Amino acid sequence: RVYSAVPASMVGRKQVIEIGPMSGLSNVKFWLRENGYNPEDEELCARIFQAAKKTDRTLTKGELEVLCKMG
Predict the structure, then answer these.
(1) Phi, psi values for residue 27, rounded to 5°
(2) Domains of the chain by residue range
(3) Percentage above 90 pLDDT, the chain
(4) Please, what sign has the CA dihedral across residues 50, 52, 53, 56?
């Protein structure tokens, strides 16, 4: 669930969720679901979550794709 003052869809946009060191597991699962991956894959979620915690910035889509293919 995403909380925001104005839902992105009300202004013709799509919700964007980034994954970085301050992200929670729900961010990881949302990103996986939105990008066609299985958000119930615990190993995949843990791999992305741990990688995010080791950095000081948000992960790029390319970095996330590489992490998804490492399995």
Answers:
(1) -65, -45
(2) 18-69
(3) 77
(4) positive
Provide, rounded to the nearest whole percent, the portion of the chain with pLDDT above 70: 96
Q: What pLDDT, in 10s, does the model give residues 15-41?
A: 888 999 999 999 999 999 999 999 999
| Structure-block tokens of residue 8 | 């992105």
Helix, strand and coil in the chain, % to nearest 5 = 50, 0, 50
* 10, 11, 12, 46 from 29: Cα distances, Å: 23, 24, 23, 10
Q: What are the DSSP E strand ranges found in 1-71?
A: none
Distance of alpha carbon 55 from alpha carbon 38, whole angstroms:
23
